């Protein structure tokens, strides 16, 4: 079966992606520099965002990305970068603040409430989890997988859906601005259940004794990989990478949830609710006293 060199949706595709990535990086840096005078964002967050952009470029426009029609392992690596690794790095950089500052320097603060409403509507954990799981499973159905590998248009749709699903999935975990960053124990379960679709898919590909994606039977077998060995390597990569990333994220969330600072914040919030529950007349008498 024929397959196309997607890295080129002609040679124009990588150039366009590179231009978009560079423009986004420059816009972010301009906003980041502008915010340093009154509401600075840490340098490590800026580095995180730029690293996320770099990984998106690697997955979609670099010379490595053109090898995905030869090796399933490279194809799986691209999926991992777009769905699992790049999105949390982007959100950690607080891009909404920087980009809003760049494009609306005078009025960006007035849009906070609108952004909060949009974020709250989209970032329901159930919706985010189902979206990411559906994208992962649907694009690995053999017929759909082959369609994306043979069509530059569908390959673009595939990569875009992985990135969009990844951004949506990681929103409730990272809780970027304008969300209220407050780690919850439920997010650890959220990450645990998110590993299940990956475990099932990767386990099937690792232990299957046949080539699930016949399109790779006609590949050039780079680096000495046979089609079945390539499939097992790709599945092992997904299994290991997803487990490690989610484990690290879960450990960080656990430390935040159990930190003394978070406990003090909960106590203060509970105390505030108790004060508000006191009748207004009583509070006024206490204040007067």
Task: Give descriptors for this structure.
289 residues; mainly alpha; 73% helix; globular; disordered C terminus
Please explain how this structure is put together.
It is built from 12 helices and no strands. With 289 residues, the protein is an all-alpha fold. The protein has one domain (6-258). It is globular and about 60 Å long. The N and C termini lie far apart (85 Å).
Write a short abstract of this structure.
The chain has 289 residues and is mainly α. Helix content is 73%, strand content 0%.
Write the layout of secondary structure elements.
Blueprint: H1 12-35, H2 43-60, H3 72-92, H4 95-103, H5 112-122, H6 125-138, H7 142-150, H8 152-174, H9 186-207, H10 227-258, H11 260-277, H12 280-288
Helix pairs in contact: 1-2, 1-4, 2-3, 3-8, 3-10, 6-8, 6-9, 7-8, 9-10
What is the number of independent domains? Answer: 1
Poorly predicted residue ranges: 1-10, 266-279, 281-289
Order of helices and strands: HHHHHHHHHHHH
Structure summary, number of beta strands: 0
Helix content: over 70%
State the secondary-structure class: mainly alpha
Percent strand: under 5%
């Amino acid at each position: 079966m024929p397959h196309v060199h997607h890295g080129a949706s002609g040679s124009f595709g990588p150039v366009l992606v590179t231009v978009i990535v560079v423009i986004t990086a420059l816009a972010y840096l301009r906003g980041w520099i502008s915010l340093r005078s009154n509401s600075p964002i840490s340098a490590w967050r800026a580095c995180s965002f730029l690293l996320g952009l770099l990984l998106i470029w690697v997955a979609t426009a670099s010379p490595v990305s053109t090898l995905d029609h030869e090796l399933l392992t490279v194809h799986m690596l691209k999926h991992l970068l777009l769905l699992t690794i790049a999105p949390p790095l982007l959100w950690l950089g607080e891009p909404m603040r920087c980009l809003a500052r760049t494009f609306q320097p005078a009025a960006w603060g007035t849009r906070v409430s609108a952004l909060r409403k949009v974020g709250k509507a989209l970032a329901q954990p159930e919706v985010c989890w189902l979206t990411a799981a559906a994208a992962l499973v649907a694009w690995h159905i053999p017929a759909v997988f082959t369609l994306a590998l043979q069509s530059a248009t569908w390959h673009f749709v595939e990569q875009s859906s992985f990135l969009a699903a990844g951004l949506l999935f990681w929103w409730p975990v990272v809780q970027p601005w304008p969300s209220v960053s407050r780690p919850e124990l439920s997010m650890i379960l959220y990450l645990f259940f998110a590993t299940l679709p990956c475990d099932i898919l990767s386990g099937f590909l690792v232990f299957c004794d046949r080539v699930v994606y016949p399109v790779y039977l006609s590949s050039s077998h780079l680096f000495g990989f046979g089609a079945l060995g390539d499939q097992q390597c790709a599945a092992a990569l997904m299994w290991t990478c997803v487990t490690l990333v989610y484990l690290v994220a879960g450990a960080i969330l656990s430390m935040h949830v159990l930190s003394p600072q978070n406990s003090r914040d909960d106590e203060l919030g509970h105390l505030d609710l108790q004060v508000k529950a006191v009748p207004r007349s009583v509070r006024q008498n206490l204040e007067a006293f």
